[in-house]
Specification:
The chain is of the alpha/beta class. It contains 10 helices and 17 strands.
Length: 374
Amino acid sequence: MSICVQDIDAALQEWAPAETAQSYDNVGLQIGRSSREVSRCLIALDLTPDVIAEAKTLDVDCIITHHPLLFRPLESLTDASLVSSMALEMAESGIALYAIHTNLDAARDGVSFELARTLGLEHIDFLSGLDNSQVKLVIFVPLARIEDVREAAFAAGAGQIGSYTECSYSHGGTGTFRPGPDSNPAQGTAGGMRESVSEVRLEVLTSRWLLPAVLEAVKEAHPYEEVPHDIIAVEQSFSGAGIGAIGTLRSPLNLSSFLNLVSKVLDVDAVRFVGDEEGEISKVAVCGGSGSDFISLAKRAGADAYVTSDVTYHRFFEVMNETGKIDMAIIDAGHYETEKMTESLLQRWLRDRFSEVDWIRTKTKTSPVKIWKG
């Protein structure tokens, strides 16, 4: 059976829905046709001219990157700038380009989870769940059809609370309606008298991105022509997607030893950090890529150290208390270095699901940043 870009997209969307990406992001198919058949695919953190050259040499059909090439619309498609030139070359070569960025950052077992495992952390979970991502769907159902509608909602993905699935709440009451002359009622006749029905109020939680599919499934299973329902915003985080990751070391280390571990496993020659080199590190928070906005989350979670990148000078002061003592170590290990394991993560995940496709991890180091040791 041939595999198309749209098949790969559908699988990745189940793991990392595009709706969980940050508002500034641009994920999914960026260049090419969704119907493009894929027998060989190159995986890279970034798209660079060297990656494109590698792709052509390997004769691949598709490139999947973590960082999108197209963050914003191009003014022209020419060879006058780096991004435009690469987009033009990809289009001319017929190679599809797919990006999975902050939606993979937000996915369980995504980028930050992989970074945490690379550092040897155990008991890993999200640093924080994803806010404003859930709604409560309330459906009014005739008593005789409650199980049909409940099962339809569950099958579409509703009813997840943490590690529990098929969660719902229901209680009974009486519903009334009077069929209009142009109606097609499940009970009574068009233009007839007011009807009374024993109904159940069914409540389920669902993520916002699953809501359209859940509603469609519920309407298919519901006997009414017009399905009475409410959609209510929920002020709680969703544990199925989130920010960063946090876990514990198998055995505590002092900060100096932990810095050596970070440098070794991430293969980085130098890291920037604040903290007491003799301080004990046991609980560690991480965020692959730019994670300085989540320093306060790591502190509130009780982390002894936070590993991320792109920390500006003044953000390092945020871990100091009123006396200037550092409450939590921060380690800036580099953007590329804290995300490069994404390539092997994607290769492994996709190979497990599409064994007929040749998934190739790039041999190109895409980061342009070098360290001068002096």
